[in-house]
Design brief:
Strand order of the largest sheet: 4-10-9-8-7-5-6
CATH superfamily of the largest domain: Type I PLP-dependent aspartate aminotransferase-like (Major domain)
Low-confidence stretches: none
Shape: globular
Strand content: 15-25%
Helix content: 40-55%
CATH class of the largest domain: Alpha Beta
Number of strands: 14
Radius of gyration: 22 Å
Mean pLDDT: 93
Largest sheet: 7 strands, mixed
Distance between the termini: 39 Å
């Protein structure tokens, strides 16, 4: 069989709809300055789908820092991987400031969060070790776990009693192999918005011997008294052994970092294949991240504004009978009952008749019969934006309950 047969015969659960959804429901093009209002297919929309939590993407100081650094260094410097020829004082300065901010001794920059997490897991465990991870862990964690040659156990999302059972199984195995146990969870789960139970997980260290990795992509810069993340929120910073954060959310940039002890960071720097064999993070991105971190640390009003908008939006949706699950973060998932076909009809109605752009998630990303409208509030949204959106969602729910979105096929934007 020709291995390329899959591109036409086995398109996958999402790919099978590609001809109908590409360019509208999938791979849409938002144009203009990153803002709460951007153009989609020539019309201005109120955008609730960008992880620009603190509104830093178009902050004037950020834009200036990015522009000035690019003018001075270009996008090529430094050339080469960090280990070979890509080390600079500014890279080290950013690492030192990040480590201090999240309460760790040392830190290492990562070019991309997804690749970085895969590589962290790959570097830290071997075939004698056992990985125990949350069932709703992000795809980067799942892909990292798939590389593991040893045993791995998954516990149902945030089910601490089941986690105990998996730790008991893992302990028996490692007693035979001489390996260790790595528990992996998230700080904020990006789809549901609820928090990993870091307080309860770290408390298990009294009864079990394990190390803990926390992917806090959606918590860094947002959660905790100073924005240092979910570990700060639960006051368990020192119990988290490896802390992972990304620049792609609250910092509105490219790149990520891992923070831990100096020994662990030195080990990762010499063993993470995705970083050893990749070009160093370009200088404009490093200098831009320093500016973003400065604003994040020195302007708590940005985080306060974000939470004001998030609370107003979430409380308003709940008052109108919407199910938001157990979100404890700005991530706002609106759970509806329906099929994938209805999801596309809802998205089309929101975008074309209410000029609201937000992400619609259906099967196979979530179980059949479930639709999630995922809303991401930011510090640059206004209370007027919230009021308008709540009015629109009330009408959407009414239409859904009346069956007005029942269709027998996915909305084909090319035929509307």
């Amino acid at each position: 069989m020709d291995i390329f047969n899959k591109v036409t015969n086995r398109l996958g659960p999402l790919g099978q709809y590609a001809n109908k959804i590409h360019g509208y429901f999938a791979f849409p093009k938002l144009e203009g300055d990153i803002s709460t209002r951007m153009k989609f297919r020539g019309k201005e929309r109120l955008v609730w789908s960008l992880n620009n939590y603190l509104g830093l993407a178009n902050h004037p100081e950020v834009r200036k820092a990015d522009s000035d650094a690019t003018a001075i260094y270009g996008l090529a410097y430094p050339m080469g991987a960090r280990m070979m020829s890509g080390q600079t004082d500014m890279h080290e300065k950013l690492e030192e400031e990040l480590a201090e901010f999240v309460g760790k001794e040392a830190c290492y920059l990562l070019n991309y969060g997804y690749q970085g997490m895969v590589s962290i897991i790959d570097a830290l465990v071997d075939r004698n070790d056992v990985i125990v991870y949350d069932s709703e862990a992000h795809a980067c964690i799942v892909d990292g776990v798939r590389l593991h040659l040893g045993k791995r156990f998954v516990f149902p999302h945030n089910d601490i009693n089941n986690l105990k059972k998996q730790l008991e199984r893992a302990t028996k195995i490692t007693e035979q192999t001489g390996g260790g146990i790595m528990v992996i969870t998230e700080g904020v789960f990006g789809m549901s918005g609820d928090l990993g139970k870091l307080d309860e997980i770290t408390a298990l260290k009294k009864d079990f011997k394990f190390r803990l990795i926390v992917d806090d992509a959606h918590g860094f810069g947002v959660m905790g008294k100073t924005g240092a993340g979910v570990a700060e929120h639960f006051d368990v910073t020192h119990e988290v052994d490896v802390y992972f954060g990304t620049f792609a959310k609250a910092m509105a940039a490219i790149g990520a970092f891992v923070a831990s002890t100096p020994e662990v960071i030195r080990y990762l720097a010499y063993n993470m294949r995705s970083q050893i064999f990749a070009k160093s993070l370009p200088m404009p991105l490093v200098i831009g991240a320093l500016k973003r971190l400065e604003l994040l640390r020195n302007h708590p009003e940005l985080r306060e504004k974000l939470w004001t908008i998030a609370y107003e939006l979430q409380n308003g949706l709940r008052k109108r009978g919407f199910n938001l699950g157990n979100t404890q973060s700005p991530v706002t998932p609106v759970y509806l009952s329906g099929q994938t076909e209805e999801a596309t009809a809802i998205a089309y109605d929101l975008r074309e008749n209410y000029n609201i752009f937000c992400s619609i998630v259906g099967y196979p990303v979530v179980p059949k019969g479930v639709i999630i409208i995922r809303i991401i509030p930011t510090a640059v949204h206004t209370l007027e934006d919230v009021k308008y959106t709540l009015e629109a969602f009330a009408k959407i729910k009414e239409n859904l309950d009346e069956g007005k979105y029942l269709v027998d096929k996915i909305v084909d934007i090319n035929k509307t």
